[in-house]
Write a structure and sequence with these properties.
The protein is α+β, with helices and mostly antiparallel strands and 126 residues long. It has one domain. Strands 1, 2, 3, 4, 5, 6 and 7 form a seven-stranded antiparallel β-sheet that branches. The C terminus is likely disordered.
């Protein structure tokens, strides 16, 4: 992602899925690798970068699905600095522009709202 690129959360209630494009940064302390998603203010750890990213991706899925199920996704994303764009029927689009400061993009991925963790592996690389 170039500096100042856009992160987004796209919710399609007709297809019952969330499309996510965010970024992360990595750091290491001792044997632990940390992956942080500044846009969603989430951080997780693992013994490798891959494990830290997989753990972070699972946390992103759980946080977003929980917010949608509880009807709080709009409030949550607004508090995190996302702007809601003009609605399209059955779809909600939030975006945020941040300076990248060494963060790398997590390739966009889709979260089904029905059984979001069932047999799911994050399809992204670092």
């Amino acid at each position: 992602m170039p500096q100042g690129d856009v992160s987004y959360i796209f919710i399609d209630s007709r297809k019952k899925e969330i499309e996510v494009q965010v970024s992360c940064s990595f750091r290491k302390r001792g044997k632990w690798h940390f992956a942080e998603c500044q846009e969603l203010q989430l951080i997780d750890q693992g013994l490798s970068k891959r494990q830290a990213l997989d753990n972070l991706a699972e946390m992103i899925v759980l946080a977003l699905v929980s917010a949608v199920e509880n009807g709080k996704i709009g409030d949550m994303l607004k508090a995190l600095g996302f702007r809601k764009l003009e609605p399209v029927p059955d779809k909600t689009f939030f975006k945020q522009t941040l300076e990248m400061d060494g963060r790398i993009p997590i390739p966009a991925f889709t979260i089904p709202l029905e059984n979001p963790m069932e047999g799911r592996a994050l399809a992204c690389s670092i």
